[in-house]
Amino acid sequence: MTFGILCAMEEEIKELHDALQDAKTTDIHGLEFYEGTISGQQVVLVRSGIGKVEAGLTTALLITQFNVDIVINSGSAGALAPDLNIGDVVVSTETAYHDADARAFGYEYGQLPQQPARFEASKEWGEKIVAAAADTGLKTKLGLIVSGDQFLNSPETIKDIMGHFPDALSGEMEGAAVGQVAHQFDVPYVVVRAMSDNADNDSGVNFDDFIIDAGHRSAQMLLALLAAQD
């Protein structure tokens, strides 16, 4: 089995890259894909860049060029649920776009035409990630992650998003695009996000302070998952 893991930023990928053994690098149009093993498991690791288009493109390449069996998007996010704190980890049960609106044509808010309103993540692998990470001491929660090409740092924006997605746990900029492409190719996927900020007016400051720790926490979840596989 081959795990495809993508992260948006260097701070999010570094610990995973450091753990990769027997690495082989393949450059595809400026994206560097690292093939190797972690805890004996076959892994393809890549830094996608930030945003939905970059994430969707990279997911498609992982699936079509490297034949990965599952796509895992790891990184940081802003907490939307009031009971989440900086450092907590959310594992997706589903993802959705918080910045798509085709309601004029009869679709739900967040739903793109000819696509589901939400992209269901792998229940099996989500639960495996949470179970494998039980010994890490990290607080984890399973639920909805929403995505858009916007860094969330406004209470008004958060209020609007939560009005459409009252069950959303966290917001970021890639996960739903990963979900859409994985859905299109019928490949299981999971998004893992450590909270780097509370998506409020201080988000920019908090993000800079906590992004390295958030990347570490997300990576620890995946390293625990890979170590737990037979």
UniProtKB/TrEMBL annotation:
GO cellular component: cytosol
Catalytic EC class: hydrolase
Alphabetical list of InterPro entries matching this protein: MTA_SAH_Nsdase (IPR010049), Nucleoside_phosphorylase_d (IPR000845), Nucleoside_phosphorylase_sf (IPR035994)
Residue span(s) of domain Nucleoside phosphorylase: 2-227
Pathways involved: Amino-acid biosynthesis; L-methionine biosynthesis via salvage pathway; S-methyl-5-thio-alpha-D-ribose 1-phosphate from S-methyl-5'-thioadenosine (hydrolase route): step 1/2
UniProt EC number: 3.2.2.9
GO BP annotation list: L-methionine salvage from methylthioadenosine; L-methionine salvage from S-adenosylmethionine; nucleoside catabolic process
Keyword Amino-acid biosynthesis: yes
Top-level lineage group: Bacteria
One Pfam family recorded for the sequence: PNP_UDP_1
Single GO MF annotation: adenosylhomocysteine nucleosidase activity
Catalytic activity: 5'-deoxyadenosine + H2O = 5-deoxy-D-ribose + adenine
UniProt keywords, alphabetically: Amino-acid biosynthesis, Hydrolase, Methionine biosynthesis
UniProt KW Amino-acid biosynthesis keyword: yes
CDD domains: MTAN
Protein name listed in UniProt: adenosylhomocysteine nucleosidase
Organism of origin: Levilactobacillus parabrevis ATCC 53295
